[in-house]
Design a protein that fits this description.
Helix 5 packs parallel to helix 9 and helix 7 packs across helix 9 (195-220). This protein has one domain. The chain has helices spanning 2-32, 36-39, 43-50, 55-77, 85-124, 127-133, 138-176, 181-190, 195-220, 226-256. 85% of the residues lie in helices and 0% in strands. With 257 residues, the protein is mostly helical.
Length: 257
């Protein structure tokens, strides 16, 4: 029993240590925003890496996300409610939940792990120490451009995912049933509210910040050796996914109630 309690205490202290260190990184990042000359020329490159290069995988997942949502709604509503309600379900499910959450989870695996591995490699090979020796702020050079790019590109990718998902859902619905285009979009527009747009965009901003900050934190705290870099990349992806799911519930609770 004592051993178990000691284990729990050690894990709690470790968790609190990481929370404090993560908060310190956020504070240092906010201070580094004033060092515009260091990160200004790096933001566009990171936007290409985070956003443009993620378009194919986000588009592919969005197509099947819309197809599955439409297929499930059409099959469930056959002979029970008017089929145009399938348009409502596709619109609500994709805009309020699936587009932002699925996009963020994909980016947590693709972008988060890559950032953690890249910064972790720089950490263990002492390149970050070299930046400090050359009077560069490593947070302004490594974290801020990635954070700004994430804050811009994750909402853009979410809008792209939502558009592709709804279009895929529309094509699936009219192909599998006698539902017409007019009826599908009649259902899609019937219960539209401002929350359908505010919720995914606000979640996308938070998700983007979470993915980047968690990945940078794990990379900056990577241990020596290839194993340490691999662990940092894995921890970045897993931690970002857990944080995304937690924020997903919190944001839905705040905006939808």
């Amino acid at each position: 029993m004592f051993t178990f309690l000691r284990f729990l205490g050690a894990q709690l202290l470790r968790f609190l240590f990481h929370v404090g260190s993560f908060g310190k990184l956020i504070y240092r990042t906010l201070l580094a925003l004033t060092d515009v000359r260091t990160y200004a020329g790096l933001v566009f490159e990171q936007m290409m890496h985070i956003g443009v290069r993620s378009l194919p995988i986000v588009g592919y997942i969005s197509i099947f996300m819309g197809m599955v949502t439409a297929l499930q709604s059409v099959k469930q509503f056959t002979q029970t409610v008017p089929l145009y309600i399938a348009g409502t379900v596709v619109e609500k499910a994709i805009l309020q939940e699936l587009a932002s959450a699925m996009t963020a989870l994909v980016l947590a695996g693709r972008v988060g792990a890559a950032i953690a591995a890249e910064i972790g490699t720089m950490k263990v090979t002492e390149q970050i120490d070299a930046l400090e020796a050359m009077a560069f702020n490593p947070v302004a050079y490594l974290v801020v451009p990635r954070l700004l790019a994430g804050l811009v590109m994750v909402p853009v990718l979410t809008v792209f995912s939502a558009a592709i998902g709804v279009l895929a859902g529309w094509l699936t619905s009219i192909s599998l049933t006698e539902l017409t285009t007019f009826e599908f979009f009649k259902g899609a527009k019937m219960f539209v509210t401002w929350r359908d747009f505010a919720l995914p965009l606000s979640k996308a901003v938070l998700f983007g910040a979470s993915i980047i900050m968690v990945a940078c934190y794990q990379g900056l705290n990577a241990r020596q050796g290839a194993e340490g870099v691999g662990t940092a990349a894995t921890n970045a992806a897993v931690s970002a996914c857990l944080l995304i799911l937690t924020l997903d519930f919190v944001m839905a609770k705040v905006i939808l109630t």
